[in-house]
Write a structure and sequence with these properties.
The protein is an alpha/beta fold and 430 residues long. Helix content is 33%, strand content 14%.
Amino acid sequence: MKLCTTCFAIFNFLAIVNSWQQLRFLFAVSVGSEEKEEGVKNPNRSLFNTDDVMVQIQSAVESNYTETTLDEQNPTSSFEASFLTPGQHDSDKSMGILAGLIDGISSIPDSTLTQLIELNCQYQVAVHILTSLDSANTDLEARRAQYESCAPFVVLQQDARVRELFPNRIDRIAYLRDVQRASIRRHFVDGLVNDSESNAAALLSQSVVIVMDLDLKGIPTNKQLVQEMDIMSQDVDGTDVLCASGQMFNPIGYYDIFATVLSPHTFPYPLAGRLVEKFMPGEDPSMVRSNDMYGGFTQLDLLDFFEKEALHSPDGTVPVKSCFGGLTLYRGSTFFQSNCRYSVDTKHLSAFANKEDARPCEHVAFHDCLLTNDRSTYIAVKPTLKTYWDEPSPPKMPSIRICHLLIIALSHTRSDQTMEQNLSKEISLW
């Protein structure tokens, strides 16, 4: 009772100082189901209201890239060119792979690099990084050497001509993701098992690939990542593509609206920023972010939507047509779907293009292809799987955060025990 009184006192005080629209952007959302019940697939999985299949797939030319194996006596001898570190992987077992893009290894936040090494060595998750030519990091092997054994750690360095060949930012990223995907297939998937195709397919279905932006300001803990990998690996009929809820602080809200398409057919990107400035047939205008970032429907509202919807889901996920959030888990058999690429003809997806890039996000294109090839593909956002795209600039305000959690929790029928758990979790963050 005292907590509620404090909440409302703070709320009334801030309402005097700021308008309601400003106040709501001080709130950070952190509520979501932690239940680990078996996933239930969404039966309503229509595509992007189009029957067009992708055409003119642009192949990733991996010959433009160089990989070498480190000299065991001098592990940094070829670091400047590129390197492929040794590691052990049992080809008769399913696997976990983390794939990331970054301008240079030195640009990876130290806390993230520490997590990558821990995943690689303590949890035996293979790591594949595609980076630029200035990626030397001489202490990487030394840090890995502290562990008894590690999984493979591959660094693939970009050809210097990529920016010239692909001046469009999204075209370039799509190309690089295809190159990385082809390299991962060659290193970790081809020859997964030698005895039968059926065993290979089963192992691939149980394997998990994490696609991650390595410059994020905050990522889930390794414990949570491994837990989600285990769930996906064990539940072969569950979620095929699981996206993090990418969040920002300035202003507070759900970040990755360019990569997101809500079910059944809504693109939350503001009309003023779209290449085609009109709503699509079947789109829900109330779920599209206002042209004004602080307008009628904001990215905080979208974050609230995901948090609330997850409360009604047995596995805490919210089905969508596309998402990314800076970190996404893919079932191996889904990620390596042979008919799909990131670099595809996107003319039929022009409704999801923005003005800045004059094309849709590469994740929208890839996920459209996955759904076109297999309508049962289940793509979802999990609000409790959080990434952070920036850092908070104002002082932390725990009481306000807890107030907002109470408002969200009390607006839904939840057990007292669940509310207590969520509140305790929030309080522990401060």
